[in-house]
Amino acid sequence: MKQLLVAKLAKYGLSAAVVMSLQCFALAAVASGANNHYLPLKTDPIIELKLEQLVSLSKMPAISKPYNIATIRRYLPKIRESHPGLYREISDYLKRYQANYGVTQASVGLAYSNSDTKVLPNSRGINADTFARAHLNSFASLGENITFNFGGTVSTEGNFIPHNTYLSLSSEYAQLDLGYKEVWLSPYQESAMLLSTQAKPVARVSLSSPRPISKWNIRYDLSYGKLEEMDGIRLEDTRSSGRPGFLTTHITAQFLPNWTLGGSRTMMFGGGERQITNTQIWKAFLNPMDGDNCGGDSKLQDCTKETGNQQAAITSKVDFTWGMPMSVYIEVSAEDANSHSNMKLGNLARNLGVFFPQLSDRSTLLIEATSMDNAWYSHHLYEEGYRNDGEIMGHWWGEEKNQGDGIGGAVVSSRYTRKIHNRYQLEAKGSVYQFHYKGKYEQQGAPTYDRAYDLSLSLTHLRRSGNISYSAFMGTTPLNDDFFHISVGYSWR
């Protein structure tokens, strides 16, 4: 098993030193006896809302997802007395993971839409006109600290999306995952600028902390993978096809009991005829000005020789539990550096979110707003932009503009949920968004985008054996096309 893992990692192109370090980690993990699970993303809205309530009410130091059961179990007792109903519901859900193997989630759904171009938000590239799909999550413990997770979605489009399919080696404060473990790099619930579930997951090897470390509750998540093959990778005057590498880094710390601060980076590089060395990657990561930003005072003047495409975000979240509980989070994301300085962010996205985990005993409210400068999800080295298998890897907003269009814009989204007589849960959410250029960057011949909106209504019948959900999604696109999508689904408990 150990030799197989090392061979897989070497195939991914990691340096010998990194491979040897991970090999040592794997040996240490075998002796540790820990066994942890990351909970799936964007597969079960009912339990995922309860987890967001827990994160807010318990002041859990988390500004990224997925959540690990080890951390959830550490913070769940904090709400036992204050919110016994929520405590019991999450505790019952976690019992699914106490066996040595099992199916933790399973669902089927049917849908109809009048649009064959609309991509459903945060649905891994699935189109609105997909007639039927089925989803499954399962796991098997292969030892005290070795777990294989198998999950994914199959649809009438004829493809299988293997999200939540990966092998895990875990110790108390470190977990090595190999496969399709998804990462959501933001505390935002309806969008994420750097990395979300808008596109299909990236096959990767990752190292993360299953639980917070030290009195500052430090958490980290590092990963490396390869994107699916894309066209239009530029090298000087030539274009080629290939699979760019993809790096992600994330770290958070909780300096006060209710304040969590974190930072994230993503980097796509190489691919096709763009052969990039480990030294170039390391230099571009530590010193973007000279390794990945051309022109100005940079030592790099030829823009076709940049290492790749980097993005970064700084996030702050404060949880308030007196009076009406709420979480306020602010995130500043950057698509580039400013003034060719490593200390200045450029092409910003400014994000503000407010979550009321208990607007009343039965309801929650979420409000999120984002304003983006130009150039998000487009890049001069990659004609397809910041995508995996044709879909944007960040905010679903980027899916609504033409590929390669560097236009900026703004989005305001809200979501209200209410439980009715403990038998039904109602969810209403909507977004208003638009595109606009900033300054002198307007592109010649670019289309005219109108203000757009969408509205989603869902009603879930909460039954002992499973949940039946009915939903309607409708609106107008920035190109002034109307769409609607109706669906019905069943989820086994």
What would you say this structure looks like, in words?
This protein is mainly beta. It has a single domain, classed as Capsule assembly protein Wzi (Porin). 14% of the residues lie in helices and 43% in strands. The chain contains seven helices and 23 strands. β11 and β12 form a beta hairpin. α1 runs antiparallel to α2 and α3 packs across α5. The longest helix has 17 residues. The N terminus is likely disordered.
Task: Give the secondary structure arrangement, pairings included.
Layout: H1 2-11, H2 16-32, H3 45-57, H4 69-75, H5 84-94, E1 101-113, E2 132-141, E3 146-155, E4 160-161, E5 165-170, E6 175-180, E7 203-208, E8 219-226, E9 230-235, E10 238-242, E11 245-256, E12 259-269, H6 278-286, H7 288-291, E13 308-320, E14 326-338, E15 341-360, E16 363-372, E17 387-388, E18 391-392, E19 408-420, E20 424-436, E21 452-462, E22 466-476, E23 482-492
Antiparallel strand pairs: 1-2, 1-23, 2-3, 3-4, 3-5, 5-6, 6-7, 7-8, 8-11, 9-10, 11-12, 12-13, 13-14, 14-15, 15-16, 16-19, 17-18, 19-20, 20-21, 21-22, 22-23
Helix pairs in contact: 1-2, 3-5
Nutshell version of this structure?
The chain has 493 residues and is mainly β. It is 14% helix and 43% strand.
